[in-house]
Structure formats: structure tokens, C-alpha cells
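S2.1 Query sequence (DsbA family oxidoreductase)
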Amino acid sequence: MKVEIYSDIACPWCYVGKTRFEQALAAFPQAASVEVVYRPFQLDPSAPEQPRGHREVLAAKYGPQAAAMDDRITALGAAEGITFDFDTVLENNSLLAHRLLRFALDSHGPAVQSRLKGRLMAAHFGEGLDIGDRGQLADAAAEAGLDRDAVTAFLAGDGLRDEVLADIDGARGLGITAVPTFVFEGKWAVQGGQESATFLQALEQVAEETGLVRLGAAAEACGDDGACAVPAEQPGE
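Output C-alpha cells follow.
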């Protein structure tokens, strides 16, 4: 079984979803037969490369409710063993990090890509990682088991940029407008950072060749359903 997870490193619900899905996979008897691949998605493709403080960015978007949004996801993350330190989070364009994830997939396979994805999310949300900084990305990649020199050489150029952008366009073509979205066998999707039990049920249903929710449903930006959606006013819609 193949599961493709469309997510953005800058999406807190994507971090929650990854953690919960992995819990479900650990409880799934046929886990060894499941291939998990992370696909790129950008909540804000127009975000600048220059990092900005998360609190400032969120307040500009959502006003007074921004702090409550952060508090809610911080508490929810703590229950899953996830650290969200939004005072240190830096927001900027995630394309470079997505290129690195594609490089990890192509050169080392899905397991290493997943490990790198987890390392990037942990560092971004809990350690103040600048996902637009090539040196910091190379350090994170080395911690995930990749060769730092090879990563540094890759990040110095524009390799896989077109492929990643094509994947992002392909996601929109599938009707994916919110992340995380978990696509099973290219046919069925579960959207949002659902409870582990929901993911386990999805794995079991697909294994039995029964249907899941079809692609195409959208969600509000980082809403109560655990999905982060692209704002309607953003380019590329």
C-alpha cells in the first residue's frame, strides 16, 4: 500500500498529523507493506525568503485570535509529545526545504525522507530553525543521516526545483487545497491531523479494498478539523 502525504513544513497540523499517522502505522499489522512518501505543498508560496517571527506573521493574518490559536495547538501538541515553541518559530518560504525533502527521497528512499521530515518539523517548531538557511538545513539533514557535503552541494544549485513545483501544481490538480492530506493508493484521502484511530481505520479499510473519502473537500485555514488551507486571496488558486 502506498500513502502519499501532502504537507507543508510550516503547517503545525501537518506535524500533528505526521505524529498521529505514525502512531497508527505502528499499530497496523501490515505496516511493513506500507510505503509512505511525503509530497510538497505550500500554504504560502508567496512568502519571502527572509525569515519573520511567527507571532508577528500570525497576528497580522488573524489579529487578536492569533495567540489563542497558538495556545490551542501548543496544548494539543504537548498531548502528542510535540514541542511547539512559537516564540522561536521563524516563518519564510518553504520551497528550499521541500527541495531537500525531494532530494532525500530520490537519493535515500522514503524512510530517510520521513526521518528528515520529522527532524525539520521538530527543529522548525521547537528550535528556531530557519528553513530558508542552507547551512541550517544541511545540519538538520546530517542529523537525519544524510551526507552533509552532498546536501550542501545540492542546496547550492537549483536541482529539483522544477520537479517540486510540478508536484505542488499536481496536488492542486487533484483538488487538494488543505494540508495535511493523506492519499491512499492514489484514490482515497483523509484530510487533517485526525486522531490515530481514524488513520488506523483508514489503513484497515484500504487494505480491505473498501472506499474512503474522495479527494476534493476543502477546509478553513488551520481549523478545528486539523487541516490548514490556503487562503483564497493567495496567488495560484
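The domain at 2-229 is CATH 3.40.30.10 (Glutaredoxin). Confidence is low (pLDDT under 50) at residues 210-220, 232-237.
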